[in-house]
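Hey Z.,

So I finally got round to the zinc ion thing we talked about over coffee. Here's the setup:
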Amino acid sequence: MTLRPILIHPDPRLKKVTAAVTQVDDDLRVLAADMLETMYDAPGIGLAAPQIGVMLRVMVMDCVKDDINPARPMVLINPEITWESDTHSVYEEGCLSIPEQYADVERPAEVEVRWMDLDGAEQTERFDGLWATCVQHEIDHLDGKLFIDYLKPLKRQMITRKMQKLKRERARA
Ligand SMILES: [Zn+2]
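And the result:
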């Protein structure tokens, strides 16, 4: 398994709609393993393929954050939201591509998601709480959308400028 560098906003690859996976093969299994390792290492609770520059509809997540419950690494290929609740909830979101910036985002509190697993089998599950927020955030990535796109333009521009500064500093380092 290999740690992959995570792209930092702004980057054109984070704004693109990604392509559906047509075949689950060894390359895809390697990609998924790398993504999980990169996510845990960051550390984060979710990661989408375009965040490491791979323009495919693949995401990983594990929202178990405590030491009591066993980890639940999930790999979702071609995930699709098939139902969302009328009730909404607000979470303070962050993103591995937008380090150290957090903001409240309102989303449906519960969603049902259909996806393909690493065996090529179809899965469906209903998510709530942090899992619901995370899966929606990651699916947004597959459509070139970031959590800051939900914020008011002024706040979004402020965060983008901070990220441009961070990238300049990292390039110099
Ligand atoms: Zn993100």
